[in-house]
Amino acid sequence: MRSLTHFFILLIACLLLALPAFAEDSSPANPEASTPTSSKPVGLDASSIPSEKVNQFVSAYLQVVALIDRREGELQGAETESESLRIQRDIEAEAIADIEKAGLSRQEYLQLLGLANVDPEFGERVVTLLQESTT
Question: Closest by alpha carbon to 128, among 42, 18, 54, 19?
């Protein structure tokens, strides 16, 4: 069940990332200039992220997880593709609202989520706060 929840969290992250992509040209004028040099999100140094931002991220993450837990049965029970897409859009909108209510922008949330997945020290910092929040 937890792996399904992680799938839905990843799905929400992908949906959140996909929205701005539709508005941008997908073929850069200089493809070499757009090649990332590291796997960390651009401009983030884990050691310089204030505790308040990390706490906001943990709060938002827990809200998104709860949202997905609450709505995954509805999504799995969708009978048509259009109904599934409608539910996904509703979940995405609610996730964005939860993220913003926690004090983060969609971009900040996704950057911190990405950093937690690629930076072991920051990931451990987040896991520790998650464990403290759920005990």
Answer: 54
**Rounded CA gap, 75 and 125, in Å?**
32
> What number is the average pLDDT over the span 27-53?
61
- Residue showing tokens 């759920």: 134
Contact 16, 95 (CB under 8 A): yes
What DSSP line would sit under 65-104, residue for residue?
HHHHHHHHHHHHT--SHHHHHHHHHHHHHHHHHHHHHTT-
The pLDDT of 8-29, averaged and rounded, is 47
Residue listed under structure tokens 């969609």:
106
Q: What angle do CA 89, 10, 20 make, to 5 degrees?
A: 55
**pTM for the full model?**
0.71
φ, ψ of residue 82 to 5 degrees: the values are: -65, -35
